[in-house]
Amino acid sequence: MTTNQHLFSTAQTLMPGGVNSPVRAFGSVGGTPVAMVEGRGPYLTDVEGTEYVDLVGSWGPALLGHSHPAVMDAVRATVEKGLGFGTSHPLESELAELVRSRVPGAEMIRMVSTGTEATMTAIRLARGATGKNLIVKFAGCYHGHSDGLLAAAGSGVATLGLPGSAGVTEAQAWETVVIEYNDREALQKVFSEHSGDIAAVITEATPANMGVVAPEPGFNQLIRELTAADGALMIFDEVMTGFRITEAGYWGASGRNEGWTPDLFTFGKVIGGGLPTAALAGRRGVMEHLAPTGPVYHAGTLSGNPVAMAAGVATLKNATAEVYEHIDQKAQVVADGLADALTDAGVDYSIQKVGSLFSVAFGTSATGVHNYAEAQAQESFRYGPFFHAMLEQGVYLPPSVFEGWFLSAAHEDAAVERILRALPQAAQAAAAAG
Ligand SMILES: *Cc1c(COP(=O)(O)O)cnc(C)c1O
């Protein structure tokens, strides 16, 4: 047994599936999960001492690369003074101001610890602020694992092929209306059938948990128009895309230019720089419904934890225009290399790409992927062999076809070269899969 195999078999006796988050178990790609013990720049090293170029980036937070010196220094300096006090702390406002300077629609901010908590609280706030009950979500959009948002969710729910989750009551599912993404007619129909009862439409800013799926031109704007006309709120989930697609998230590439702003944003991943921080934010008049200024309860022992705030502040301060240019450019190089390798191997595919976020969908070249039904209909059996061929050549991809590939500011030429060199053999493995 290798050390990784030994660790995983021990973990399986201690934790369900041997993991603390399902996709880490390699269920859809097979084989033994790799236990990572160190991250530097674009590289991860596993418990056996094997080095990989990392294209997961801790599922998004590692925008600057692993162990960025400024982030590590900020964390160390904060840790020296204590780990947290359960009181106000100056770094909370510093991070909130950085967020608002990038996304002016984030007029007020509440820090939480996970993206799940951010969207869960945003839903409660939307219901509390509007006095309405129904939530509209899109199939394949993942908003964390709170009960009402698990219906037809993406990410691990998609990877495991679950319709939703056991343990979610019918009553909760009833209050969530699920429609296909990019379906303008379905959206209009929901508003004509349930006018006056809809508290909010929640959407991923640009979906990236069923693989990457671009909103069709005007789709987010239609959500904005219909919610505004009906007195419902628009919740723009930027947990994945916030401070990654542009310095102002996907809103920076869409609403900012098109002249619209959601009522509420949710942020996570990059905002915590690798530590557990997320946030909900938005219009002052809505946000002030939260306790203690309003009647919608939310609290958190670790909310605004100083060490996590320090990591977030250092990450956003160092996420400069050059960082975004670099990531965009390297993502294009890797996506082009991926396309070339698959074409040369005779594999049918589409590259699903929005800004620097992209994923591959097999057997979808005719139409691309615009919604969850199309994402699920792809030839996902090709991904396991592709993934393992990359892993064997020292490239760590997301262990599911339904997840995006994450580049970072630290992916310099040597790391990108290693990815490009590994792609042809992996494309052959995808071609041979059956
Ligand atoms: C990751 C993610 C979440 C959940 O965040 P956690 O920190 O894992 O709870 C919510 N929404 C989107 C769009 C995400 O990508």
UniProtKB/TrEMBL annotation:
SUPFAM superfamilies on file: PLP-dependent transferases (SSF53383)
Which GO terms of the molecular function aspect are on file? Answer: glutamate-1-semialdehyde 2,1-aminomutase activity; pyridoxal phosphate binding; transaminase activity
Q: Which UniProt keywords apply?
A: Cytoplasm, Isomerase, Porphyrin biosynthesis, Pyridoxal phosphate
Location of this chain's protein in the cell:
Cytoplasm
Major localization class: cytoplasm
Which residue windows are transmembrane per the record? none
Q: Which reaction does it catalyse?
A: (S)-4-amino-5-oxopentanoate = 5-aminolevulinate
Return the broad EC class.
isomerase
The record ties this protein, via CDD domains, to: OAT_like
Cofactor(s) annotated in UniProt: pyridoxal 5'-phosphate
Chain positions with N6-(pyridoxal phosphate)lysine modification? 269
One GO CC term of this entry? cytoplasm
PROSITE patterns cross-referenced by the UniProt entry: AA_TRANSFER_CLASS_3 (PS00600)
Its Gene Ontology biological processes? protoporphyrinogen IX biosynthetic process
Q: Where does the signal peptide begin and end? A: none
EC number(s) per UniProt?
5.4.3.8
Under InterPro entries, the record lists: 4pyrrol_synth_GluAld_NH2Trfase, Aminotrans_3, Aminotrans_3_PPA_site, PyrdxlP-dep_Trfase, PyrdxlP-dep_Trfase_major, PyrdxlP-dep_Trfase_small
Pathway(s) per entry = Porphyrin-containing compound metabolism; protoporphyrin-IX biosynthesis; 5-aminolevulinate from L-glutamyl-tRNA(Glu): step 2/2
Identify its protein family.
Belongs to the class-III pyridoxal-phosphate-dependent aminotransferase family. HemL subfamily.
Instruction: Cite the NCBIfam families for this sequence.
Output: hemL, PRK00062.1
Subunit architecture: Homodimer.
What's the protein name?
A: Glutamate-1-semialdehyde 2,1-aminomutase
Source organism: Nesterenkonia natronophila
